[in-house]
Here is the input.
Amino acid sequence: MKIKNPATGDIIIELKADTAETLKNKFNALKEGQKSWSALSVGERLECIEKFGALVQQHKNELAAILTEETGKPIQQSLNEITGAHNRIDHLCKYAERWLSEEVLVDSGNTREKIAYEPLGVIVNISAWNFPYNVGYNVFLYALAGGNSVMYKPSEYAVLTGKQFEKYLHRAGVPENVFQCVIGDGRLGQLLLEEDFDGYFFTGSYATGKHIAETVAHKLVPVQLELGGKDPLYVTDDVPDIKQAAINAAEGAFYNNGQSCCAVERIYVAERIYDEFIDAFVEEVNAYKVGNPVDPDTFIGPLTREQQLGFLSDQVADALNKGAFLKAGGQSVEEKGYYFRPTVLVNCDHRMKVMTEESFGPVIGIQKVASDDEAVSLMKDTPYGLTAAVFSSDEQRALNLLRKMDTGTVYWNCCDRVSPNVPWSGRKNSGLGSTLSFKGIRAFVQPKSYHLRNW
Ligand code: NAP
Here is the structure.
């Protein structure tokens, strides 16, 4: 595998990918290791996870540099991710024992009924590159807490970070035969589908997720999918501060170069404030520092994947052909590296790909709406169902709109946000199942119901 730096296109390192044989050996080891790992108490497993968290924080500068080098994420955003992801560990330490302990439901006369939560066994975590700490922790740490052993396959664009997870988990006391990282591209991913895992946990695109779910369906084991989105934001005519609304919306659209599953992907603006909002939005986007991701002031670095440059150019051309106006950006940067200028398209509508197809990059389409009803019908016009946001000074108005959304998450006056306290789940083409919260803790265990009767 050639690991490249997206800021330059240069090869950082060449690594030997796993093969069918090494994968099999690792799988067999995980099968064995899971037995003693699951025999530990939840508290003992959490001790290792807590230690892992402390080691990561201790080495966060070095780890952030690795993440930036292989994904192009601006260094400050790499640090933010590593620091922020620690809230999953805090959440587990606070709640895992509560949600994984036995529950006695009936204890009367000579009858007891209780539920015990048992691990699934050996699970596989096929992961994405855009927020490897956040989306990785959501799966592998929660799975380990539940007593499973884990095979972790990082994306081919976040391999070095995946290897660091392995190194620090082992250092923190998670045995080698309880967590294993396998590296390779989609072909290795395909081999994983042939192995007899007790659960498949995937983060990535709808196309790959659907393929995985279809391929492993016959095994009748849990399959969980965290997929893409086309997340809408509606800015109503009663926002108290149009400039601030524009700044927040732009951050939701362009943070991490728009390469976030819950990035704002399309914006609807009430016609009364439309012009003022666009001016403020464009001013904000033009002020973003585009450049070398190792510079602490950079907000927009290179895209992680070179092929996304052509994809975004096609979306922009399609929108312009159908009547959109370009207010900022619009093309890649004529230099080394995979840079695409932050792009704002206005006068958009749903004939354009930019309003219907996940961009996953620094391109946003904005459309004017005449009423709340029109906004709702456009927001719902998507096969995805990850998040939806409304900016308004009227909470009741916002809640009435958000209730109509068929999405796993809704936001009032915020966006592009994940918290371990509440479930993270996509509906429709955005996924299946939940991570985080009590749902995410329970996702990696199976109930055993005990009916107990004294003679
Ligand atoms: P992807 O191309 O679908 O890849 C995801 C993972 O699947 C990678 O590890 C990939 O390996 C692997 N893979 C590829 N082909 C496979 C196959 N045939 N069988 C098994 N595994 C296979 O997605 P991505 O580009 O990494 O991530 C971007 C997408 O993820 C976006 O749509 C984004 O919205 C979504 N996402 C969703 C969430 C969420 O929480 N809902 C979070 C983050 C990202 P290689 O990379 O080595 O090819």
Q: What stands out?
A: The chain has two domains: 2-227+430-453, 232-412.
